[in-house]
Amino acid sequence: MNSNTHRWKFVVAANRLPVRRLWQGQQAKWVPSPGGLVSALQPVMADNPDATWVGWSGVPGDAEMPFEVEGLQCHPLSISQGELQLFYEGFSNTTLWPLFHDAIYPPEYHRTWWDAYRSVNERYAKTVVELAAPGATVWIHDYHLLLMPGMLRKLRGDLRIGFFLHIPFPARELYIRMPWRSEIISGLLGADLVGLQTSLSADNCCRAISRITGIKTSGKTIHHSERTTRVGVFPIGIDADRVQNLIAEPTVQARAVEIRESLGSPSTVMLGVDRLDYTKGIEVRMRAFRELLAEGRLSPENCVLIQIAEPSRSQVTGYAAVRREVERLVGDVNGNFGVMGRPVVHYLHQSHPISELVAMYFMADVMLVTPLRDGMNLVAKEYVASRANNTGVLVLSEFAGAAQELRTAELINPHDIEGLKLAIESAVHRSKTDCTPAMKSMRRVVLTDTAQRWAERFLSQLETC
Ligand code: F6P
């Protein structure tokens, strides 16, 4: 297929392509990326001669030619080193990311970042204009591309455009701090359908739209300039089959046993799995754990915490500071409560393959998911999907989107350290049979509302717009 002339009926645009480079010695090859979005779209896109994905390869510089990986058509888009700093690290991750996560870290506003953000969004829009067939469906993803729906609409009125925001939409009072608030809302209103993870985010989005444009929204429908934009709630799920298939593998089960033994077979293993990000509340849970040990409410002989902190956005302001603080706390807990050869916290600042994570989920008695704000949090759902025997306790922040669906988790407010300590203590002491009804009910949700179902729901609603 000549990708220079081919026109696609379904185009996905996202900051990253659905593939990553895997190095084997000196040789690199592309493989599909792990994660909810890729699993969700794989059934729609793989081996579909009418579908392509536009995005950045993750390496700054000129874009490569379009290529295919396991049936996924990829159309790389170039991001220069300068744009990486201004567009990705700057506006996307130091302006939008903190602002949209309740400004828990102070957002910065710089005109040079905004200019780069606009120009990268324009490049995406112009690329899709060239690639999309007449009347094609275009699905745009996430906070890196908020302007793109509006830009695309101006250039191609024939397209059906969907936009999904994977992170929270903040309260109107916070949103209106944004110097370019009107431009961003105009960008969103280029879409026929705007999807959000929770009803709170959808309400916030509608309120911001009416405040900025003066248009009265009727429910979640916005009539503007002879067109209509619908706002809807579409909580993303996980690839539950993939997790369940891994759990069924003898090697994964054996690895779970091996990990527990390597920890000294403690009676309770607690687990945290996060990108190392200031939104994730890793320090909060570390402080709660330290206090519980200091107060003698948990015993360092019986209770071990594994904290996986996947390296992330290390050049972005705020990330180095959170790493220093987490590592200081880990050192503090281990220095005070560990014994020779037996740390109480096993901290790994490394990425892990999904099979290793699933072995950990399968083995962990208590899962700690304590973000200060999170769009969804798929780790919480992966833990639940891994609990094939219906045991285990999920301690889950009310400020994660997942808390809207996983109502029988041990819900906590991460700002309330005493409440968090009580929840952890009670989770550690809960018997296996006591956990079962709550876990069964969460499993029903996670195994039914999967990533694939999410994509089907969004796309079928978009088709009716
Ligand atoms: O949660 C938002 C998100 O963009 C995810 O879609 C993605 O997996 C994660 O953050 C990592 O982000 P980055 O692309 O900056 O590494």
| Largest sheet properties | 9 strands, mixed
Q: Whole-number radius of gyration?
A: 23 Å
Beginning-to-end CA distance, first to last residue: 31 Å
Q: What class do helices, strands and sheet pairing give?
A: alpha/beta
Label the overall shape: globular
Number of strands: 17
Bin the helical content.
40-55%
Strand percentage lies at 15-25%
Overall residue-averaged pLDDT value: 95
Describe the structure.
- By secondary structure, the protein is an alpha/beta fold.
- It is 43% helix and 21% strand.
- Helix 13 (378-386) crosses helix 15 (432-448).
- The chain starts with 7 loop residues before the first strand and ends with a helix.
- 6-O-phosphono-beta-D-fructofuranose is lined by residues 15-16, 35, 142, 166-167, 312-313, 375.
